């Protein structure tokens, strides 16, 4: 298949997916309205003002639904519908002309993500990089970025349709910078997600855990993503039981802080793709401060 035809096919698949996603969004809005109607009816409260104009149609639909339909079983597929069924294959690369520190950081990311393959960026453009990753059956691309030799950016793009999450990095500490760092096993790690309570938080949780395969129950390796005020702390530990009810943790690094600043409905090269989330200055105050 020629490159032009594969590009057209990818664009068509993306349009079809976005159409299904828009239908799912409409259904989700309708389901929310029906739930409000049911809750008001069961509690004896007045009908919420935002659904009063649609009361007759909603009441007729609710009366005709069975229990399964009432709870809104999700049938529209999404990008992570097969999450956990197959082991991911992750491509790890960097921005062009990386410093020695960024190269070392990419090696350590390659170690902590099972089934990852580190690739030298070279002169690849972004679109060439994404197309090559798709042809090689990678499920995700991780791109590491830097400023003046310090890692300050991490991008995770899910293939073949997206989404793409852009994170800023701070406080990066490499393995060899951690005093007394322990040895690291290469078994599949358990992934702990803490503090991802909102819908966007669940979405980012899927983005993060999708790059890790399902571990065996006896794995002694843990990778933690802890969200606190939209800053995500990444930590990597090995643990061992030291008694009947005691566990000894050993940090094996690396560690860093992440902050989401953009979530795009598309792959890395799709600059025209719809923005699902963008961090804006006015979100630093009030209720919009916490989004995850």
UniProtKB/TrEMBL annotation:
UniProt-listed InterPro entries:
Brix, IMP4/RPF1
Any idea where the Brix domain is?
88-269
Return any one Pfam family short name.
Answer: Brix
Q: Which GO terms describe its molecular function?
A: rRNA primary transcript binding; snoRNA binding
Q: Which residues form a coiled coil?
A: none
The alphabetized list of GO BP terms reads:
ribosomal small subunit biogenesis; rRNA processing
Recorded hits in Gene3D superfamilies, A to Z, give: Probable brix-domain ribosomal biogenesis protein
> What protein am I looking at?
Brix domain-containing protein
Q: Which organism is it from?
A: Triparma laevis f. longispina
